[in-house]
Structures are given as C-alpha cells and as structure tokens.
What we know:
It is a single chain. By secondary structure, the chain is of the alpha/beta class. It has helices spanning 16-27, 39-48, 66-76, 104-131, 154-174, 209-220, and strands at residues 7-11, 31-36, 56-60, 86-89, 136-141, 179-186, 230-233. The protein has six helices and seven strands. It has a seven-stranded parallel beta sheet, sandwiched between helices. β1 (7-11), α1 (16-27) and β2 (31-36) form a beta-alpha-beta unit. The protein binds NADP nicotinamide-adenine-dinucleotide phosphate.
Amino acid sequence: MNVADSIAIVTGSSSGIGQSFTEQLLQKGATVYGLSRSLERMEAHKKQLGKVGARYIPVLMDISDHDAIEHWVKHTFTDSNHYPDILINNAGLGYFDNIEDLALEKFEQMMQVNVSGVFYLTRHITPLMKANPNTCHIINIASVAALMGNPKISVYNATKYALRGFSDALFKELRYDGIKVSCFFPGSIATRFFDEIDEIEVHNGMMHPDEVAETLIFVLERSDNFLISELTMRPLQPKKS
Length: 241
Ligand SMILES: NC(=O)c1ccc[n+]([C@@H]2O[C@H](COP(=O)([O-])OP(=O)(O)OC[C@H]3O[C@@H](n4cnc5c(N)ncnc54)[C@H](OP(=O)(O)O)[C@@H]3O)[C@@H](O)[C@H]2O)c1
C-alpha cells in the first residue's frame, strides 16, 4: 500500500501508541480520523503537529457506543472517492485483579471497548472497504495477552484472545475482497495504559510507542499481495521480576 494520500481511521488516537500511529501516518501523507473520548488532547496534538496536522481530524467518540459509530460512519463517508483505506482498531484498556475482586463495571468496560467497540466499527467500515477499489487494511491491536494467560488479567486475556479469533476469521473472510486483516501482539510498551494498574510502573525496559508505530507503517507498506497477518513484538530485556 502507498500510505500517502490514503484515508485512515485510528481509534485511541489521544494517547500512547494510537497517538504515535496517528503521527506517523500523517508524516507519510495520510489523512487520519482519530477517535477517542478526549477531544481536547487530540486537538492539542493536532496543533503541535503543525503543517501535517491539517490532515488530522480528531473525532470525539466512545467506541463502545454503537449508534454513535453508525451515525458517524454514515455521515462522514458519503463520497465514494473518500472511503477509508486503513482501520487501526487500537483503543483498549486493561484492569488487573483477582477474578473475585474485579468490579463488574470493569469487566463490562473491557468487554465493551476491547471487543464490542472493535466489532461495531469494523462492521460499519467493512462495506466501505469492499466498495473501495484500493487494497485496504484493518489492523487490530491485541497484545501478548492474546497468546498466553496470566494471573490477575483473566478478563483482559479473554478480550485479547477474542480479538485474535476475530482477526484470524476476518482475514480469511475478507482476503478476496482486497482487504487485509492483521493482528498485532505487542509486549509491554511505555504508555498511559499502566496508569490504572497499581502493580506495574512504566520503566525503561518497555518498548517505545514510536517503534511500534514504525512497525505498523512497515506492515502497511507491503505490496498488495503480501500480508503480515500476525505479528508479535517484545522488549528484548524487560525488567526482571
Ligand atoms: N501499553 C502496553 O504495554 C500494551 C501492550 C500490548 C497491547 N496494548 C494495547 O494497545 C492499545 C493501546 O494502548 P496504549 O498502550 O497506547 O494505552 P493508552 O495510552 O492508555 O491509550 C489507550 C487509548 O484508548 C482510548 N480509549 C479507551 N477507551 C475508549 C473508548 N471507550 N472509546 C474510544 N477510545 C477509547 C484512549 O482514549 P480516551 O481515554 O481519550 O478515550 C486512549 O487513546 C490497547 O488496545 C492496549 O490493550 C498495550
């Protein structure tokens, strides 16, 4: 794919790797719709980006709100010359706790954002990608938590395993429509993700969001018949526990 002049949607654009994805897509010449609940943070980033920020369109959106997503997609992509080429399902969150202590609202929120939100947006964007003559690409940001279970993250694990299954099935469903589907499994990255998690502090042994974003660009830029369907990323030397 030639990322220049492409139209991309990045969920969770207000922070962490979503912010880095947004920035690097813009640097490559894409137009980026960034979706998150923090409009001010996205607007501040847009300003800071200067000239390339002109192609950044921050959108206030809670991806767990199906009707809001449906409404936004319907009213944004009205012109068939302006259909999305790239969808980065990145927004997500994790709460760590023993199963009996995890508040029900936290369980519901992880399911709503990490699973339902991805389904809602993908469901409404896929028909536009099918109608788009360009080869399109959906990238789902799972985690190494989609590959192995660990104590205290059972529900986060469940959501990310779900995302892996969703991605693998969609890859097979959409390949002949000219739509690539990839799933990423990153290990720990230094972001605000850990703000809510008492057990883990951000440290130098974590990966940097910009390197994860460089990898995303590499995956997007492969030729039309070349798909990296799954990708694991790890810090070589994480903090020893
Ligand atoms: N950091 C890691 O070590 C790590 C490792 C593997 C995978 N991941 C995955 O990477 C993704 C990005 O995480 P990050 O590390 O960049 O964390 P982050 O800095 O906390 O960013 C999370 C993003 O998700 C957005 N978000 C959360 N709930 C949302 C909602 N209901 N609607 C719309 N946007 C929502 C947040 O925006 P608002 O709060 O402004 O809405 C924020 O932009 C997540 O899916 C996470 O599971 C992270």
